[in-house]
Amino acid sequence: MEKDLFGICPYMTAQKLFAGKWSILIMHHLSEEPVRFNELQRRLPDMTHATLSRQLKDLEESGLIIRKEFAQIPPKVEYSLSEIGEKFKPVLDCLEIWGSEYIEYLKEK
Fold first, then answer.
1. Model's pTM, two decimal places?
2. Domain count, the chain
3. Could you report the per-residue pLDDT of 7-47, keeping only the tens digit for each?
4. CA 92 to chain centre
5. Among 20, 27, 58, 87, which residue carries the largest CB count within 10 Å?
6. Do the domain assignments include residue 2?
7. What was the pLDDT predicted at 53?
8. Is pLDDT above 60 for 2?
């Protein structure tokens, strides 16, 4: 039986945290500014409401994002990166650079 390496191996830990199809893209949008749910859904039109809710909940439970509720009518909820989520920004920058280079590589093939 394979031992669960979450919390032991940094690669396995990162892979499990960002296993959701949309998690890195959500982190990208939240790295720019706090965003409301409906605005995130507009920015990610191919994602269903249920999927976005699930991904946000998973990222919140992992401590990577913060969900802030405002006591007002109509209700307002805003999502932002947590302190540990903010530390993921340089990784996002590297992924953008690498992804752009890979797109160029594909164009050359």
1. 0.88
2. 1
3. 889 999 999 999 889 999 999 999 999 999 999 999 998 99
4. 10
5. 27
6. no
7. 95
8. no
95 is in which domain, residue-wise?
A: 10-108
The region that residue 63 occupies, defined by phi over 0 for left and psi between -120 and 50 for alpha, beta otherwise, is left
81: which strand partners? 65
- What are the structure tokens assigned to 28, written together? 């990208």
Give a yes or no: residue 40 inside a domain: yes
pLDDT digits (tens, 9 = 90+) for 62-101: 999 999 998 888 888 999 999 999 999 999 999 999 999 9
- Match 């590297």 to its residue by tokens: 94
DSSP string of 22-81?
A: THHHHHHHHHHS-EEHHHHHHH-TTS-HHHHHHHHHHHHHTTSEEEEEE-SSS-EEEEEE
Location of structure tokens 């390496």: 5
Measured between alpha carbons, how far apart are the two ends of the chain, in Å? 41
Cα–Cα dist 33/28, whole Å:
10
Q: Which residue has the tokens 């690498």?
A: 98
